[in-house]
Design brief:
Nucleotidyltransferase, domain 5, alpha/beta, kinase, globular, binds adenosine-5'-diphosphate
Length: 464
C-alpha cells in the first residue's frame, strides 16, 4: 500500500483479525448446523428455527390479485401483485419512508401510518371501492412466534426498531385494528417473514428452490424442512410433509462460542439499540458493515495512523464531525469504494469528500480505507456463505440434486464481489460440490418480499 511501517503493521493486524481461515470457517459451519438441529428440537439454541405455517411447495400455477406489505427495513412498501400462473406476475408498488420517530414510538402510531399508506395506495390504484376484500400478505421481518398463518407474537425488535406496546403482541391484529378503524377494506391473511417470502417468490419461477436469504438491512434465512425433523412442532396434522422454517439466523451464536468477534464489532454492538443481540447479523448485514468499518478507521485515527500529524499539525480531517457520527459511514460507500479500480482511487476520494467532508485525502490513505472495506466486506460474505453451506449440508442436498437459493437485499444486489465471496466460502465448505455455482445456484429474488407475501396470502386464501 505504500504507507508507513506503523500503518502497514496495523493493517496487517486488521486483515488478520477479519480473515476467517478455511478451518475456522468449517468450525463456524459445523456450529451453525448443530444450532439448527437444536433449534428444531427447542433445546437452548441461538437459532430460533420458527415454523412458518407455509406448507408444501408451490406449483407456479397460483393466480389472482393480492396485496403485499413489507415492513422491516428502511422503507415500507405496499405492492399490488397479480399472479398470472406459469411463474409469471405483475407488480405495482409504492414506497414510503419509516422515520426513526415511527420506528421507536408507540406501535399504534406505526400501524396507523401503515394503514394510511395502504389506503392511499388503494385510492391511487382505484381499488378503494373494490367489491371484494383484498387479501394481504404482511411481511413483518422480525422474530415472531407464529401460531397460525396469520397469527403470531412478536418476540423482540431488531434492526433499529423499538416501538412500545408491540413485544408479546400479535402484529397482524394490531395492523388489522388500524385498518378497521380507518375503514380500509383489507384482510391481513398471512404473516410472512421476508426470508420465507423470498424463498417463495424464487420458487414461483424456479421450482428447485429450497433456500431463501435476506442480505439487506438485516440478514436472515429460510429453507424447506421435513416435518419429521421439526421435533418441536405442536401444530397438529399438516397437509404436507414439508414446511418452510424461518431460521432467524441473525441471532446465531449470540453467546459467541465461535464467531470471530473483534473489538470493532464489540463497539458496534455495545452502542447499538440491541446490545448482545443479533451478533451474526451485525457482522453480515447492510445496517452494520459501514459502522464496523468506521470503527476501524476511528481507531486508526486515534492511534494517529490515519490523517495523522502532518508537519506537526494534526490534520483537521482527524476531527471530521461527519466521520464521528454514529452510522455515518454507510455500507453503500463501501460498495462504491470497493468498485473503484482507478490507480489513484479517484472515486474513493470523491465519496469520502462528498459524504464525510474528508477533503484532499491522499492515495495511501484511500488505499488503507479501501483495504479495510475489503476485509470487512469479505468477512461478511464468508459468514453468509457458512450459513448457506450449513443449510445445504443439514438438508443433505447432494450435488446431483442441487438447489436454487433466492436472495433479496441491497447488500447482495449491489455490493461488488459479495456473491463471488459467498461462492469462495461455499467451495471450501461444500467440497463434494465440485462446481458449486452449478449446484448451489444463488440468484437475486427481485421483489422477494412483495411477490412472496402475495403467494403466502394466496396459499392462506386457499386454506380458508
Ligand atoms: P431492506 O433490507 O431494508 O428491505 P435493502 O435490501 O435495500 O432494504 O437494504 C438496505 C440496506 O442495504 C441498508 O442497510 C444499506 O446500508 C445497504 N445498501 C444500500 N445500498 C447499498 C449498496 N449499494 N451496497 C451495499 N449496501 C447497500
Amino acid at each position: 500500500i505504500g504507507g508507513t511501517p506503523e500503518q502497514e503493521d496495523y493493517l496487517e493486524k486488521v486483515v488478520k483479525e477479519f480473515t476467517i481461515t478455511p478451518n475456522y470457517l468449517e468450525k463456524i459451519c459445523a456450529r451453525f448446523m448443530s444450532e439448527m438441529t437444536k433449534g428444531l428440537d427447542n433445546e437452548g439454541q441461538t437459532l430460533a428455527m420458527i415454523p412458518s405455517y407455509v406448507e408444501g411447495r408451490l406449483t407456479g400455477q397460483e393466480k389472482g390479485h393480492f396485496l403485499a406489505l413489507d415492513l422491516g427495513g428502511t422503507n415500507l412498501r405496499v405492492v399490488l401483485v397479480t399472479l398470472e400462473g406459469d411463474g409469471k406476475y405483475k407488480t405495482k408498488s409504492s414506497k414510503s419512508r419509516v422515520t426513526d420517530e415511527l420506528k421507536t414510538g408507540p406501535m399504534r402510531d406505526l400501524c396507523d401510518y401503515i394503514a394510511d399508506c395502504v389506503d392511499e395506495f388503494l385510492i391511487e390504484e382505484g381499488l378503494s371501492n373494490a367489491e371484494t376484500t383484498l387479501f394481504l400478505g404482511y411481511t413483518f421481518s422480525f422474530p415472531v412466534l407464529q401460531s397460525r398463518i396469520n397469527r403470531g407474537l412478536l418476540k423482540s425488535w431488531t434492526k433499529g426498531f423499538n416501538c412500545s406496546g408491540a413485544v408479546g403482541k400479535d402484529p397482524v391484529m394490531l395492523l388489522q385494528d388500524s385498518l378497521l378503524r380507518k375503514n380500509v377494506p383489507i384482510k391481513v391473511a398471512a404473516l410472512v417473514n421476508d426470508a420465507v417470502g423470498t424463498l417463495l417468490s424464487n420458487a414461483y419461477q424456479k421450482p428447485e428452490t429450497s433456500v431463501g436469504l435476506i442480505l439487506g438491512t438485516g440478514s436472515n434465512g429460510g429453507y424447506i424442512e421435513k416435518m419429521e425433523r421439526i421435533g418441536k412442532w405442536k401444530g397438529g396434522e399438516t397437509t404436507s410433509d414439508e414446511m418452510i422454517i424461518n431460521m432467524e439466523f441473525g441471532a446465531f451464536d449470540n453467546e459467541r462460542v465461535v464467531l470471530p468477534v473483534t473489538q470493532y464489532d464489540n463497539k458496534v454492538d455495545r452502542l447499538s439499540i440491541n446490545p448482545h443481540c443479533q451478533i451474526y447479523e451485525k457482522m453480515i448485514s447492510g445496517m452494520y458493515l459501514g459502522e464496523v468499518t468506521r470503527n476501524v478507521l476511528l481507531d486508526m485515527i486515534d492511534r494517529e495512523l490515519l490523517f495523522g500529524p502532518d508537519n506537526g499539525n494534526y490534520d483537521l480531517k482527524a476531527f471530521s464531525t461527519e466521520l464521528s457520527g454514529h452510522y455515518a459511514f454507510e455500507t453503500s460507500h463501501m460498495s462504491t469504494i470497493e468498485a473503484d479500480g482507478s490507480p489513484d482511487l479517484t472515486r474513493t476520494k470523491e465519496v469520502l469528500d462528498l459524504n464525510l467532508n474528508l477533503r484532499d485525502i491522499n492515495t495511501v490513505e484511500s488505499k488503507i480505507i479501501k483495504r479495510v472495506c475489503e476485509v470487512v466486506g469479505t468477512r461478511a460474505a464468508h459468514l453468509a456463505g457458512a450459513a448457506i453451506a450449513g443449510i445445504v449440508r443439514h438438508c443433505e442436498i447432494s450435488p446431483e440434486e442441487g438447489t436454487d437459493v433466492g436472495i433479496d437485499g441491497s447488500l447482495y444486489e449491489f455490493y461488488p464481489s459479495f456473491e463471488d465471496r459467498i461462492y469462495e466460502a461455499l467451495a471450501i465448505l461444500l467440497p463434494d460440490h465440485k462446481d458449486v455455482r452449478k449446484t448451489v445456484r444463488l440468484g437475486l429474488a427481485k421483489d422477494g418480499s412483495g411477490v412472496g407475501a402475495a403467494l403466502t396470502a394466496c396459499v392462506a386464501a386457499q386454506m380458508e
